[in-house]
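Shipment paperwork, digital attachment
Item: protein structure file
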Amino acid sequence: MIKIIIVVLLIFVIFNLFKALLAMNKNDQTHQMSKRLGLRLMYSVAIIAFILVAVQLGWITPNHRPY
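Attachment content:
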């Protein structure tokens, strides 16, 4: 379940990044690009916070030996 939540948040990050690209290419004056990039940043912070909370609560365990 934890992995599904993280993957969904990553999909939102990529979606908002591409929506910001489309807004930048349109060159409109509604500040959509800034809004989308802000959402991308918010989702990225949410992913990091969620992972840290999940590790602290013991829902996921980090790999102690990366090799």
